[in-house]
Amino acid sequence: MKQVTIILLITMISFSNILGNGVCVIDASSGTYFKLLSSEVEVTVENQVAIIKTTQTFYNNLGQSRNFKYAFPLAEEESATSLRWKINNQWFEAGIAPTPQDTTLPGGGGYIDPDLEMYLGETPLYYDIEQPLDAGSNVIIELTYVNLLPYEFGNVSFTYPNNYQYIQSSVLDKQEIQFTVNSDRTIENLLLLSHTATASFNDGQQASVNYQSLESAANKDYEIQYSLSLDELGLFGLSTYLSEEDVPDGRDNGYFVFVAEPDPSENADVINKVFTLIVDRSGSMSGNKIVQARNAATFIVENLNEGDKFNIVDFATNVTSFMPGHVDFNSANETAAFTYISRLNANGSTNISGAFSTAVPQFSAASENTANIIIFFTDGQATTGITDTQGILNHVNNLVNSTETDLMLFTFGIGTDANEQLLTLLASQHNGLSDFLGSDELEEKITQFYLKIRNPVLLNTQMSFSPAVVSETYPSPLPSLYKGQQMIVAGRYNQAVPVEVTLTGEAFGQPVSYTYQLDLTESALTEYQFLTKIWAKKKIEYLLVQYYQLDSWSAGAQAIKNEIIELSMCYNVITPFTSFSGEQMGIEEIQPDQAGVPGSFRLLGNFPNPFNATTVIRFEVQSAVHELVTVRIYNTAGQLIRTLEVAVSGPGQYDVHWDGRSQNGELVPSGTYLYVIDFGNAILGGRMIMMK
User: Fold this and answer.
1) Which of 78, 227, 438, 667 has its CA 20 to 30 A from that of 206?
2) Rounded-to-integer distance, Cα 223 and Cα 231, Å
3) Are 180 and 203 spatial neighbours (Cβ–Cβ below 8 Å)?
4) Which one of 345-359, 393-407, 641-655 scores highest in mean pLDDT?
5) Which CATH class is domain 23-228?
6) Rounded distance, CA 644 to CA 418, Å?
7) Span 566-601, pLDDT tens digits
8) C-alpha atoms less than 13 angstroms from C-alpha of 236 in its C-beta half-sphere
9) Class of 530-692 per CATH?
C-alpha cells in the first residue's frame, strides 16, 4: 500500500455541514496566521454527493520567512480526497492514507487561541507543509473533499460557513462560490439563500448558481438549497472498485452505498387513517404558541389523504370539537376546518381529562383496517377536571378500553412546564411516542412528525440482491422506511455487474415490494473513496451490538472486540476501543465512571437499570459539538427496536428518555437491550435490562 504522506480525518454521514476556509497557522497560542487574500469554492453535486474544491490564497505579511501548518475545519461527514499547494512557483501534492494525524499546532506549548479552536471545530484536517513561505510571497492551497448532502421530503441543503471573522477582520480581494447540480431526478429549483446570486441556471437535470464579490469581508455563510421532484422517487447508488493493494482488509474489492426512497403511491388505498388532533388552547398557550398551534393544525388538515377521516378537539377550561365525530376528508370539510382552526384563541385553565373524554369515544366507530391516531400536545399541567397523573392515566385507559379499538397516541410537551411523566406514560401505554419541545418548536416538530407517520412505506423491511455478488450489507436488520425519508445501505461486492435490488416489507399489514437496478462500477473512482469509511462505520456499529450481548471477558466478546479494533485501524473510524491516535483505550465493559472517547464524549450509563417502563440514557459532551446525535436501541437478536435523537449544543450532560416502547409504539418484553450512541465520528454503547 502507498506510503502515508498526508493524514485525513474522514468520518461518516450526518446532517450538518461545518466547513470553512482554511487557516495557515504560525502560532496557535497568539493567533498569528498568514493573511487570507481570496477564497474560491467550486461545488459539483452528483445525485446528492457533493464534491467540493476550495482554493485559498494566503500572503506572508509577517516580514520574514515562516514555517506554517495548514488547518481546515473539516466536518464529521466530510471525506477529503486530495490536497495540493503551490509555493515558490511549484505545485506539490499530498498522498492519502488512513493513519493518525499530528494534531499539534505550532507555538504556545499546547495552548490554542479560543477563537481558532472554536473556528476549527471538532474534526479539523491538519497538514504540515514542509516548505517555508518567504516574506511577501503567496501560497495557494487547494483542498478537495466529498459529502452526501442532507435530504428531507425532496429538499437538499448545503452550507459552507464563510464567516472568517474569528480569524481575520480585514477584507478579502475575492470571494466566489460556483455550485452545480447534476441529478437523475428533476431539479425543480435551486436557490442561493444567503447571498444575491451573480448568475443562475436550471434545465431540470442540471442547475447552477454563482456568487462573486470583490474587496469584501468574509462574514456570511453560504446557504444553498435545491428541491427534487417527488414524482421521480426510487434508488440511486454510488460505488467504487479498488485495486487489490488498496483494499484495507484484503476482502471484496467493491464498496457501495445506495440511497432508496420508494414511491408509496401504489399503497395509498391501504393507508387510510382515522385521525384526531387535540389542541391545548389554555391561557399559557397565548402569544406565539397558539399561532404555531393554529399553523400546525392547518398544515395537518391540508395534508390528510383521500379516504381519511378526521376531527379536531381543543381544550381549555371547556372542551369543544370541530365535529361531533370523525368526518371524511373532502373539500367542504377541509374549508370548514380551516375556519374553525382560525378562531382558536388561548385563555382559561387546562382540562386534559376533559379533552380525552371528548376525543376517545369518537373512535368507537373506527374500523380495524384503519390506522387510528391521536396527536395531543400541551404546554402545562392539568389544572381542572382530573388533575393528578395517575387519575388521568386511569381515565384515558378506561375510555380506550370502552371503545374496543386500538389507538396510537402521540404526545408532545411544549416548554418547561409540561407534565413529562404523564405525557410519556400516555404515549407508552397506547402504542405511541412522546416528545418534548421548546416553546418555539411546536409548528415545525409537529408538522414534520405528522408527515412521517402519514405514509409508512415499508415496515419489517427485507432486502435481496440478484446475482449474489453483494456481501456484508449494513445496517442489519434494516430499518422501516417512511415517505420523504431515505434508507441508506452500505455493502461490499466482488464482481462489477448490474444487480437487481429488491426491498420487501409491509404497509399496514399489506405486503409491499420494490425492485431496482443497481449498476456496480468496475473502476476505482477517486471521488467515492469515502464509501469505504461509510461501510466500515456501519459494520462497527453492528459489531458493537453483538459485543454488548456477551460478557466482556468471554472469548466471543474478545474476538468481536479485536475485529472492531482491526476495522478501526484499517479504516480510521474511532470506536470505544480506539482513539484518533491509534491507541487502544482498554475499555472492557462500559461503566458510567470509565467509558468515553478521548477529549469529546463520555458515557454516563442509563438510570434506573434495571428499569420498569422508562429509563434515561445519559452522556456527557466535553467540547463544542453542535449536532443531532442518534441513539439506537437493539434487542439481543440484533434487531433495531427504537431510534431516538437529541440535539447537542456544546459541552454538558444530555439525557435521552426511552419509554420502553418499540418504534411502532408497542411495549417491549422484559429482557436485555443494547443501545448505541452515534456521534458521527465516534460511537458509544452499553446494555440495559427491562424488568416488568
Assistant:
1) 78
2) 26
3) no
4) 345-359
5) mainly beta
6) 20
7) 787 677 665 667 643 323 222 233 333 333 344 477
8) 11
9) mainly beta
| Burial class, 671, CB count within 10 angstroms (exposed 0-12 / middle 13-18 / buried 19+) | exposed
The C-alpha atoms of residue 401 and residue 18 are separated, in whole angstroms, by 50
State mean pLDDT over 459-465. 84
Boundaries of every domain in the chain: 23-228, 272-454, 530-692
What is the DSSP secondary-structure string of 138-190?
EEEEEEEEEEE--EETTEEEEEE--B-TTT--SPEEEEEEEEEEE-SS-EEEE
**All cell numbers assigned to 484:** 420523504
**Contact call for residues 416 and 450 (beta carbons, < 8 A):** no
Q: What SS3 state is found at 309?
A: strand
Residue 30 near residue 109 (C-beta atoms within 8 A): no
SS3 state at 346: coil
Instruction: Please state whether the peptide bond connecting residue 669 to the residue before it is cis, i.e. omega within 30 degrees of 0.
Output: no
| Residue 7 clears pLDDT 70, i.e. is over it | no
Going by their DSSP bridges, the two strands 187-192 and 222-228 should be labelled as antiparallel
Q: Are 625 and 599 in contact (CB under 8 A)?
A: no
Cα distances (angstroms) measured from residue 465 to each of 18, 261, 350, 688? 36, 17, 55, 35
356-360, 389-393, 434-438, 451-455: which range is least confident on average? 451-455
Per CATH, 23-228 and 272-454 having the same topology is answered no
Half-sphere exposure of 366 (CA within 13 A, CB side): 32
Binned at pLDDT 50, 70 and 90, residue 444 comes out as: confident
**137-187: per-residue pLDDT in tens?**
999 999 887 777 888 778 899 988 788 888 998 999 999 999 999 887 899
| Measured distance CA(468)–CA(500) in Å, rounded | 10
Identify which has the larger pLDDT, 140 or 483: 140
Secondary structure letter of residue 418 according to DSSP: S
Residue 416, CB-side half-sphere exposure with 13 Å CA sphere: 0
State pTM to two decimals. 0.52
What share of residues in the chain are helix, strand, coil (percent, to 5)? 20, 40, 40
Window from 1-15, 238-252, 398-412, 464-478 with minimum mean pLDDT: 1-15
Walk across the sheet containing 487-493 and list its strands: 234-241, 254-261, 487-493, 470-474
- Write out the three cell numbers for 312: 379536531
Q: What per-residue confidence (pLDDT) applies to 686?
A: 80
CA–CA separation, 657 and 671 (whole Å): 18
SS3 264: helix
